[in-house]
Amino acid sequence: MLAFLVKRVGNAILVMLTVAFFAFLIFRFLGDPVELMVNESATQVERDELRARLGLNDGFFAQYVRFVGNAAHGEFGLSWRNQQSVTTLIAERFPATFELVIIATLLSLLVGIPLGVFTAIGRGRWWAESLQFSSIVGVSLPSFFVGIILILVFSVSLGWLPGYGRGEVVQLGLWSTGLLTASGRAALVLPALSLSLFQITLVMRLVRAEMLEILRADFIKFARARGVKHRALWFRHALKNCLMPVVTLTAMQVGNLIAFALVTETVFQWPGMGMLFMQAVTFVDIPVMAAYLCIVSFIFVTLNTLVDIAYAVIDTRLRAA
Amino acid sequence: MRFTRIMATGVALLALSMPAMAGTLKWGASRDISSLDPYSYGDSFALGVLNHVYEGLVRYDRNLKIEPALATSWEIVSPTTWRFHLRDDVKFHNGADFTAEDVQASLKRASDPKSPLRGNIPAYKGSRVIDAHTIEIDVSANYPLLLNDLTTIYIFDAVWLKDNSAEAPTDVGSGTEGYATYHENGTGPFKIESRQPDAKTVFTKFDGWWDKPQHNIDRIEFTPIASNSTRVAALLAGDIDFTDQAPVQDIPRLQASQQVRVLEGTDLRTVMIGFSQRDQLIDGKPNLMKDIRVRQAMQLAIDLDLINKKVMRGKSRNAGALVAPQIPGYDAAIDTPMKADPEKAKELLKAAGAEGFAFNFNCADSLVNEEQVCQAVASMWSRVGLKPQLDQGTRAVQTPKRSSGKVDVYTLGWATLPMLDTYSLTSQVLHTKEGSFGIFNWGGWSDKEFDKVTEASAVELDQTKRLAMEGQSLKIAKEHVLMIPLHQQPLAWATNSKIKDFPLFSDNLPRLWLVKM
């Protein structure tokens, strides 16, 4: 088991180093931050000095080693645009993204699971088929488009919900939350909805497929023969057995959602990590971009590693792999 | 006693019945400022926003003319020494008195070798405190533009800087964060109540402001909304009251709304096209653009009216000179836009032996509809028999190629900010590249006659003579076709229609202390 753990963690570290390397390679082609940092009246000497101070004259490898060395200490340097520590910047933005992702995940489960059950038990009926059909729309619509439509309908035309920002937030120590104020909750609705739409259809389709499978199983037939009520049969006996893959999928999708939140955050001006990244791209703020990529891939790699380890704990045959 | 009570009740009732009088203005900006420290970044937009909190010795009035701010008057003692008399009734937001010491400490901070703002005050040598409200500033040579420079040098409280060890400017290169990045103590009409970077910055009215307020704003909520469509939606939904950037393509839609008022004008920024004047093109072929006939032909091939109509939707202003009419040094006599004449262009190209001349055309993405402008210009050139190869990319990618001279033809937008004078363009774009001159002379040309006039204008203290010299420089640039002026960009702000008086500024910097709700 120990050997397996070491191997798994070693893999994870290797992946992280590769990500950092590619992140760096890409940023080499993004352009010159110095031109965006100084103003029109700066002289050439000042530009050259700034370039030297930022360490841009060093070789690619030297810059990479310096970055990895610092990152290992959780130190990502100063943002070139905000002149604040990148670690602080990301830590400030993380609560916004996390709340959005958690609410979107809850939404996708609360809406997706019942929909999945209904489309499974109503298979062949017009309402179930039309739900199933419209879920294709949910999967195929790009989330920025969904976001803009939601803003147009609920914010501009109806005026029910705010279309941008996070509303009033309450600071609980280091964590800022929008869940405790009315305006914060109102501001969450549209972005969470737009982010979760894809997830809802994913969960719904997964639950439907699993339900159809299980409803054919022997123990359901026996239960039905025993005279168990429909409702109990579907939601207690059948659904319970569908949930395991849903839980696995949800756990894996949290990482995806954090990454995809980038688009939703841009559309809704949601002050999270994704928006920080987008702004960093515009300004060629390499420390922020590199840190964002590393943190997001760190979340992915950690989730994957944990899932692998959990599986290995459950199923000892996997440890040999 | 009774009278006072009645008065007080009356005032209270008045306040209750007119909640709109004293209000919050929600500003949806296209981007955030990077720091609360005005010296941390030489960024005109951030300096404009922070001007609500900090002030300089002088400032621009409604017509972009310089007027006294923290200084009441000034005189030139000797060609290199200016004496400023300071206002004696100014308080900082923390209650401290404003004195000459503060000016000296601020100038020292701004001109620090590590200060990113150093370029905004290039001629500064040193200063002497004469008494509490008089200071002398030494400049390196005759320098007529000191006042222009001082508009963006905001004054800090010397004691506050010292107490918070913020005397040195924050500097990203050496990795120093500073107290001033997160805190402010200015003299301006508003103070910062709270700030969450990229989310919201709240300004509240400063009751101790020395000037008589012309505004009636109690609070400003400044929210950056980067996405154009989200910002337009927020304005239509009434979630914001003002934006300093209404996208050109959305203006008709905004105008159609009852609740929105669009303020339109033209920007100070002049869009122009520059040429390489090196012997070889970047692919090593001989550079035919050294022949003035080729440059003239390229100019005659461009139909400005068509670009104005099709690409800029009639919102831009065709340009004949390289600076906008509002800029000191502008001369209406040379501002006649060139009429397109493709036939003449073909003749000139034939005479110069440049038919089928191929070159690289470098375009970025930071000007209004820049991609479309470039495509239009490229097709106009193709029509007269040139072969432009369009190279489009983001500003961050294109600028390094430009500044290292790896371009043949390129676009440039120049607003002369923060100096607001023709000298900004003549010294940095058109002058031969040497020393602190010609940093943006990406084409690498050198015109001795032009340089002479420009250098003379730099040290001429007589305003009338100096402006005439600048006009002369622009005339030489026009005759030699150093660059082709295209247009001044459209400028559009949009406000909620309930806002009564909102002056539009062509430098694209909102001054909310002049706004009536």
Automatic annotation (TrEMBL), chain A:
<dbReference type="InterPro" id="IPR045621">
    <property type="entry name" value="BPD_transp_1_N"/>
</dbReference>
<keyword id="KW-1133">Transmembrane helix</keyword>
<feature type="transmembrane region" description="Helical">
    <location>
        <begin position="290"/>
        <end position="314"/>
    </location>
</feature>
<feature type="transmembrane region" description="Helical">
    <location>
        <begin position="246"/>
        <end position="270"/>
    </location>
</feature>
<keyword id="KW-1003">Cell membrane</keyword>
<dbReference type="Pfam" id="PF00528">
    <property type="entry name" value="BPD_transp_1"/>
</dbReference>
<keyword id="KW-0812">Transmembrane</keyword>
<dbReference type="InterPro" id="IPR035906">
    <property type="entry name" value="MetI-like_sf"/>
</dbReference>
<dbReference type="Pfam" id="PF19300">
    <property type="entry name" value="BPD_transp_1_N"/>
</dbReference>
<keyword id="KW-0813">Transport</keyword>
<keyword id="KW-0472">Membrane</keyword>
<dbReference type="GO" id="GO:0055085">
    <property type="term" value="P:transmembrane transport"/>
</dbReference>
<dbReference type="GO" id="GO:0005886">
    <property type="term" value="C:plasma membrane"/>
</dbReference>
<comment type="similarity">
    <text>Belongs to the binding-protein-dependent transport system permease family.</text>
</comment>
<dbReference type="InterPro" id="IPR000515">
    <property type="entry name" value="MetI-like"/>
</dbReference>
<feature type="transmembrane region" description="Helical">
    <location>
        <begin position="12"/>
        <end position="31"/>
    </location>
</feature>
<protein>
    <submittedName>
        <fullName>ABC transporter permease</fullName>
    </submittedName>
</protein>
<feature type="transmembrane region" description="Helical">
    <location>
        <begin position="182"/>
        <end position="207"/>
    </location>
</feature>
<feature type="transmembrane region" description="Helical">
    <location>
        <begin position="100"/>
        <end position="121"/>
    </location>
</feature>
<feature type="domain" description="ABC transmembrane type-1">
    <location>
        <begin position="94"/>
        <end position="307"/>
    </location>
</feature>
<feature type="transmembrane region" description="Helical">
    <location>
        <begin position="133"/>
        <end position="162"/>
    </location>
</feature>
TrEMBL record, chain B:
<dbReference type="InterPro" id="IPR000914">
    <property type="entry name" value="SBP_5_dom"/>
</dbReference>
<dbReference type="GO" id="GO:0043190">
    <property type="term" value="C:ATP-binding cassette (ABC) transporter complex"/>
</dbReference>
<dbReference type="GO" id="GO:0015833">
    <property type="term" value="P:peptide transport"/>
</dbReference>
<keyword id="KW-0732">Signal</keyword>
<dbReference type="InterPro" id="IPR039424">
    <property type="entry name" value="SBP_5"/>
</dbReference>
<dbReference type="InterPro" id="IPR030678">
    <property type="entry name" value="Peptide/Ni-bd"/>
</dbReference>
<comment type="similarity">
    <text>Belongs to the bacterial solute-binding protein 5 family.</text>
</comment>
<keyword id="KW-0813">Transport</keyword>
<dbReference type="Pfam" id="PF00496">
    <property type="entry name" value="SBP_bac_5"/>
</dbReference>
<feature type="signal peptide">
    <location>
        <begin position="1"/>
        <end position="22"/>
    </location>
</feature>
<dbReference type="GO" id="GO:1904680">
    <property type="term" value="F:peptide transmembrane transporter activity"/>
</dbReference>
<feature type="domain" description="Solute-binding protein family 5">
    <location>
        <begin position="65"/>
        <end position="433"/>
    </location>
</feature>
<dbReference type="GO" id="GO:0030288">
    <property type="term" value="C:outer membrane-bounded periplasmic space"/>
</dbReference>
<protein>
    <submittedName>
        <fullName>ABC transporter substrate-binding protein</fullName>
    </submittedName>
</protein>
